[in-house]
């Protein structure tokens, strides 16, 4: 069987990657509709030798669609995705609009694939930093329940879409040629800098990005008592997010046990050989779907069942597009039962 698929926000970084991943994974597509703003309507895009025309998104765009992948911002998602559900499509949405909605499953296929079955038309794709952290943590959490996490993230500019990538490019080039740097996507110059803010701050001084790690982590792992202290930093890296993570568990878990669990964990590549300077790095994880995990060690500051580790993953692929397409694969598998 083949399916009619629409991508809402097809011209953005995630939308473009979704097209690439659908093709790479041979998703069984009958019709593919690329939906974007009025400004992009009519532009042509060649995919696997076939020419597609970008369509302006209207409330009628979803008639006859089986699967809709949401790659648009929250306001567009909220305006159009309910129309897609009304038209009978199943939606996988990458915006944060529905992630904490109790009627919407929040899914990482390697962590909680069973949650797909409970959808009411919309399934939410978690935040990229959450996906990367939990693909690494889940195998350990299944063995020894995670109680507390301290996380620092080092997030690529691709998290801000094509404009983020473009801005880093422009600034590096401008500085190399002693020209004026443009600063518009981020609060400050990102080239050769670190910006400890992603999203707005709440009254406790935590950014919206930082609160996602706790709020989404609790829902995905069905672990409502999980305590998370997260610091999210934008770094001058193009596409992969890196994360330093300390986890306190409810029972002992040795470094050797953690390595053994991660060695066979889905979606994970264990890269942990400090003696030979082997550890995850963002340049190595870019343009592929595995989350690399390494630097696993007992947490010296906290001897009660705590481990520290480092992980990297491609924000555009596994952090967004690939995870969404994997969810869509679970949806059609359920349809075909
Ligand atoms: C970021 N996770 O990295 C957010 C949204 N993609 O900017």
From TrEMBL:
Residue positions annotated to bind NADP(+) are 11-14, 39-40, 158-159, 315
Q: Which organism is it from?
A: Longicatena caecimuris
User: Short name of one Pfam family for this protein?
Assistant: Semialdhyde_dhC
List positions binding phosphate: 99
Recorded E.C. number(s)? 1.2.1.11
Annotated positions binding substrate: 155, 234
- What is this protein identified as? Aspartate-semialdehyde dehydrogenase
The UniProt keyword set, sorted, is:
Amino-acid biosynthesis, Diaminopimelate biosynthesis, Lysine biosynthesis, Methionine biosynthesis, NADP, Oxidoreductase, Threonine biosynthesis
GN (gene name): asd
